[in-house]
């Protein structure tokens, strides 16, 4: 895991455990979004790992803060649907092999 739940809660300034499931699902979705965009999963030894980690933190933060805002949620949903449609059901390994 590139960003732990504890790290993300510190980034979001969230105390307690009542939002843990939401935050963890946002971390997982953000990692999947990056991979769906062609960004390979990175670990601590990678040169660009700090940027990868920051990208996940920013994606999670935006989605966490935008909850309940219908207009922003619709824009985010349209964006995600177009990303998923571009992938056409292929997994990331299949996409990388065809490039």
TrEMBL record:
This is Phage gp6-like head-tail connector protein. It comes from Salinicoccus roseus. Gene3D superfamilies: Phage gp6-like head-tail connector protein (1.10.3230.30). InterPro entries: Phage_gp6-like_head-tail, Phage_HK97_gp6-like. CDD domains: gp6.
């Amino acid at each position: 895991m590139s960003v732990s739940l504890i790290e993300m809660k510190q980034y979001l300034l969230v105390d307690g455990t009542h939002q843990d499931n939401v935050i963890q699902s946002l971390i997982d979705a953000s990692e999947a979004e990056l991979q769906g965009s062609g960004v390979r999963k990175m670990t601590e030894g990678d040169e660009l790992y700090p940027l990868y980690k920051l990208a996940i933190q920013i994606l999670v933060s935006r989605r966490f803060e935008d909850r309940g805002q219908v207009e922003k949620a619709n824009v985010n949903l349209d964006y995600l649907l177009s990303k998923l449609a571009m992938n056409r059901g292929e997994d990331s390994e299949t996409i990388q092999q065809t490039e």
